[in-house]
From TrEMBL, chain A:
Renumbered residue ranges of the record's region Disordered: 91-161
Compositionally biased spans, kind Low complexity: 101-115
Name of protein: VWA domain-containing protein
InterPro entries per UniProt: Uncharacterised_CoxE (IPR008912), vWFA_dom_sf (IPR036465)
PANTHER family in alphabetical order: BLL5662 PROTEIN, BLL5662 PROTEIN-RELATED
Automatic annotation (TrEMBL), chain B:
Pfam families (alphabetical): AAA_5
Domain AAA+ ATPase: 54-232
Lineage, uppermost ranks: Archaea, Methanobacteriati, Methanobacteriota, Stenosarchaea group, Halobacteria
Region (Disordered): 1-21, 115-134
Protein name: AAA family ATPase
InterPro entries found in the cross-reference section: AAA+_ATPase, ATPase_dyneun-rel_AAA, CbbQ/NirQ/NorQ/GpvN, P-loop_NTPase
Top-level taxon of origin: Archaea
């Protein structure tokens, strides 16, 4: 145990490091990662070894200490960005903080902390053990709520009438892998049979145009047509209900939606939980956090997909047409009327080129689409896919490339272990 | 700092005894990888560095052929220390991994009146009680050290690298046996006492994940998952390991492998297969004409190890992947 000396920058920094570390270990445990009892201790020593200045080193060190399997690795990768922001919060963590007093938003000091620098204490005491060794000041009830404001992004705390208040991490994460996966999905969608044909392509002779131009027996170069790879028309319906937000990595969701909206040519994006809002412009901008705040996006309610589709049908009937692929990102845990959902899905299925359902839960090997909302929607869905990371997006693209919309596609054909 | 000959041998340093590689820094480790032609990304470097400096066993998982075993060999070679390798298999038992008594020698000793059958009682370090006729046949002279014990009792300048390879092939009972070794670096021999390592070995445990390992084992280890290599990394590996191969051909070859990995194959080719294939192509492609579909077809056996996979990859697919690879 050490004394918390106010005004000692080193101590404050150390406390913050350990606080963030312990919180991170606990968050991993909550997500099912089997962090050993001395995991925080080993992690602290690992950090002391590799230093704190390099994000990737810290990531590798913590992963080595806290994770024990590829499945756990996925959870780790999902939670690490939040940890890093908390860890490196208030701008520059490694210079003396401007205000080193105990702020309300900070993680509280560890009461019984291991010697992070020396690592000589080998008696197995665990700073991360769930015994309440970390106490938070200010009485906040949610860890995400009490996270430090981030310096490199924007947080938007908004109110939802059904769910509890939620601080939404709205950083447009630059993730090259994800962007490549989304691009590939865009190309796969653009190449689907029956998609928009342009005159600029050179895939096949354009007979219609050739006949129109033909006249007087003058030889003309044969016009050709192809498919414009960026001519994706898509309607994206993203579920931001509490159950989805608890499952899916929010930066991933935002980054995926943002990149789709920006890079695909014709995309309209709607967020829905108990209400539905178009956020095409907001989410497509680089400053998604501020933009979402402007759009008064609410997060964290229950899911009413049927009502959402009905609302879109009423207010935006032109959002769906024969050439539009509908992507629904939702866990299908409908709290509204299932009959209405069925009716909405029937409309979507009939009016669009195809409906792909991206379900964050479908990545689990045990997943079965048996919940009532998902079961009702399934007959109208061309493919149900997992949606938890860039790999899942890539898998959707891969299957579409090989099978198209009408082939045998879906999570059940996903060959990944 | 961080060399083979200094630092870690300081007998006065308790920390050095606990983690004999505590003096190794990142630069030194990268030098070792470089010298041994092992292409390691930052995550591998950081994790191995932690295992060395913290003195914790390192559990490495990854696809077969991703370089798990090679990592152990590279560390042994790079730090000029012994590699003690224990290849696991089903039915692996304590006597194959820890120690056996040399029964023949014991029997002869007893018959010749050179030793009794009293337990060594923990005096096994010297192996004798002093008086010739009071010697026990349960001392170190009669002990056959198997890999785990051998690693603990190493007496080189640097402790050995203990490579426990494919631990998932062994039974769960073996895992339980490993626990004592990995947590305390000691082995209990009932007749002799506890043998502790003066300088614990660097332990590398590899697994292909054919079955899950126990939490207890995982808890004692740092964890590293070696992902299938990116195109760039694989190309670097091929260029490093098969330098005779033309760089352009190496790039095409890696492009073909990367493309084939997108196919639903029963067994995805690993880096080891890519290297085998690269060597085969080098042998056949004397003129450096680049990668031809016919060459790919004829050497596919180096890459694909399942008959169904070879069948699945037909001529059309080969032509397509070669065309894709050469176009990139």
């Amino acid at each position: 145990m050490f004394e918390n000396e106010e005004g000692t920058d080193l101590e404050a920094a150390r406390e913050r490091t350990l606080g963030a570390l312990v919180s991170f270990s606990r968050a991993l445990r909550r997500e099912g990662v089997s962090v050993p009892a001395d995991g925080s201790l080993v992690a602290a020593r690992a950090l002391a070894t590799v230093g704190l200045s390099d994000r990737e080193r810290v990531r590798a060190a913590l992963k080595a200490a806290l994770v024990a399997g590829p499945d756990e690795e996925d959870v780790f990768e999902r939670l690490f960005p939040s940890f890093w922001r908390q860890f490196a919060g208030e701008g520059d963590f490694w210079t003396p903080p401007a205000q080193d007093g105990p702020d309300a938003g900070e993680p509280a000091p560890v009461e019984a902390a291991p010697e992070s620098g020396g690592g000589e204490d080998t008696n197995g005491s665990d700073a991360g053990r769930d015994g309440g060794t970390v106490a938070r000041r200010g009485g906040s009830t949610s860890e995400t709520e009490s996270a430090d404001p981030v310096s490199d992004g924007t947080s938007a705390a908004v109110y939802s009438p059904v769910g509890s208040t939620e601080r939404v991490d709205a950083i447009g994460r630059e993730d090259a892998t994800l962007e490549r996966s989304i691009d590939r999905l865009g190309r796969a969608l653009a190449r689907l049979r029956g998609r928009q044909v342009t005159q600029s392509g050179d895939e096949r002779p354009d007979v219609r145009r050739a006949l129109r131009r033909a006249g007087g027996g003058v030889p003309l170069p044969l016009p050709t047509a192809g498919r414009d790879e960026r001519a994706v028309r898509a309607l994206v319906l993203a579920d931001v209900s509490r159950s989805v937000l608890d499952t899916v990595d929010r930066p991933f969701l935002l980054a995926a939606l943002g990149h789709m909206t920006r890079e695909w040519r014709e995309v309209r994006t709607f967020l829905f939980d108990t209400d539905v809002r178009e956020v095409t412009r907001a989410i497509g901008s680089r400053d998604a956090g501020t933009a979402l705040e402007r759009a008064e996006a609410e997060w964290g309610g229950g899911t009413r997909i049927g009502e959402a589709i009905a609302a879109i049908r009423r207010a935006h009937p032109g959002a769906v047409d024969r050439d539009t692929v509908v992507l629904v990102a939702s866990d299908g845990l409908e709290v509204g009327d299932v009959a209405e959902l069925e009716e909405g899905m029937a409309w979507l299925s009939g009016a669009s080129a195809g409906v792909l359902w991206l379900n964050p839960l479908a990545g689990s090997p045990e997943y079965e689409p048996t919940c009532r909302g998902m079961a009702a929607a399934l007959p109208y869905v061309d493919g149900l896919f997992a949606f938890a990371g860039p790999g899942d997006v890539r898998e959707v693209a891969r299957q579409l490339e090989r099978q198209g919309l009408s082939g045998s596609i879906g999570y059940e054909y996903d060959p990944r272990p | 700092m961080g060399t083979d000959d200094d630092g870690g041998d300081d007998p006065g340093s308790a920390a050095a005894a606990a983690a004999p590689f505590a003096d190794v820094d990142e630069e030194r480790l990268r030098e070792v990888f470089e010298a041994e032609s092992y292409v390691a990304d930052d995550e591998i470097v950081t994790t191995v560095l932690l295992a060395l400096r913290l003195g914790k066993p390192l559990l490495i998982e990854g696809e077969p052929g991703s370089g798990k075993t090679e990592l152990g060999k590279v560390l042994a070679g790079g730090f000029s220390t012994d590699l003690v390798r224990l290849q696991c298999y089903e039915g692996l038992a304590a006597e194959n991994t820890l120690y056996e008594w040399n029964y023949t020698k014991q029997l002869l000793a007893v018959q010749a009146g050179e030793g009794g059958v009293e337990d060594g009682g923990g005096s096994g370090e010297a192996g004798a009680d002093g008086d010739g006729d009071e010697r026990s046949v349960f001392d170190r002279d009669y002990l056959l050290e198997r890999p785990l014990l051998e690693a603990l009792s190493g007496d080189g300048d640097r402790p050995p690298i203990l490579l426990i390879d494919e631990v998932d092939r062994a039974d769960e009972e073996f895992e339980a046996l490993l626990l004592e070794v990995l947590s305390d670096f000691q082995v209990s021999i009932p007749e002799l006492g506890t043998v502790s390592a003066d300088r614990p070995p660097v332990v590398i445990v590899t697994s292909n994940r054919t079955r899950g390992l126990s939490d207890a084992l995982k808890r004692r280890c740092l964890y590293l998952h070696i992902d299938p290599p990116s195109f760039e990394k694989e190309r670097a590996i091929v260029e490093r390991k098969v330098p005779e191969l033309d760089a352009a051909v190496a790039a095409e070859l890696c492009g073909v492998v990367a493309r084939l990995r997108e196919e639903p194959l029963l067994k995805q080719p690993g880096v080891a297969e890519t290297l085998d294939w690269a060597r085969a192509v080098r042998e056949l492609d004397g003129e450096g004409e680049g990668l031809e579909p016919a060459t790919v077809r004829n050497t596919l056996g180096c890459l694909l190890k399942e008959a169904e996979d070879v069948e699945r990859v037909d001529d059309d697919l080969i032509e397509r992947v070669v065309a894709d690879a050469t176009a990139e």
